[in-house]
Design a protein that fits this description.
The chain has 11 helices and 4 strands. The protein is of the alpha/beta class. It has 2 domains: 117 residues, Rossmann fold; 71 residues, Winged helix-like DNA-binding domain superfamily/Winged helix DNA-binding domain (Arc Repressor Mutant, subunit A, Orthogonal Bundle), CATH 1.10.10.10. It has a 4-stranded parallel sheet with strand order 1-2-3-4. The longest helix is centred in the last third of the chain and has 15 residues.
């Protein structure tokens, strides 16, 4: 990664070690596996817990999950935590470096297959619940969330108060069944929400 413009500040082999390193070094982005050698039987719980602690204690550090764990429940859990990326380990180095570039610039990267699996439960809730209707402003906010824009940038470009923008974001998340903006971005790239991005 260093040959592609990324400085590696620490490598750890345990979830606890990763959390400690992030707290001490405050990197821009962390690559996190869900399974660790000494915790292989935990089914990704150690990695999910590490992601939760990092998002809580170091909100300026973006978390990119890079794992071979094929468990929709685990992927759904990390989406709800608010990770900035989900990718399988079988990606080439250039793809991973490119994803890090996007995330470091404030964007999000979600493997289409994984985010689709992770969002199936939320999609079922929407299909079985009350249908939602996004207003034109809410659709615009959703498009800007997918583009990775910050609260301030959205408010400025939409010429509205930050408090008003936050209300729009809250409404969008509630209507589509997302817990975080990153989860909303992942859900918005899936089938039934595609229309909201183009309408």
């Amino acid at each position: 990664m260093e040959g592609r413009g990324h400085q590696v500040v620490a490598i750890t082999t345990t979830a606890a070690g990763g959390v400690a390193a992030v707290r001490a070094l405050r990197p821009d982005v962390i690559l996190l596996d869900l399974r660790f050698p000494d915790e292989a039987a935990a089914g990704g719980a150690a990695g999910i817990d590490a992601a939760r602690k990092i998002r809580r204690d170091c909100p300026d550090t973006a978390v990119m999950v890079l794992s071979s764990l094929a468990d929709p429940a685990a992927w759904s859990a990390v989406l709800e935590i608010g990770v900035a990326g989900l990718m399988l380990k079988d990606q080439c180095v250039n793809a991973i470096a490119g994803a890090l570039d996007v995330i470091a610039a404030g964007g999000v990267v979600f493997d289409q297959k994984l985010s689709s699996q992770a969002s199936q439960r939320a999609s079922r809730r929407r299909r079985n619940g009350t249908p939602y209707v996004l207003t034109p402003r809410e659709k615009e906010v959703l498009r800007r969330i997918v583009a990775g824009q910050s609260t301030g940038q959205m408010a400025r470009e939409m010429n509205i108060a930050t408090s008003t923008l936050r209300t729009y974001v809250k409404n969008v998340l509630s209507k589509i069944g997302a817990h975080t903006r990153l989860q909303a971005a992942a859900l918005a790239t899936q089938g039934e929400l595609q229309d909201e991005l183009t309408a």
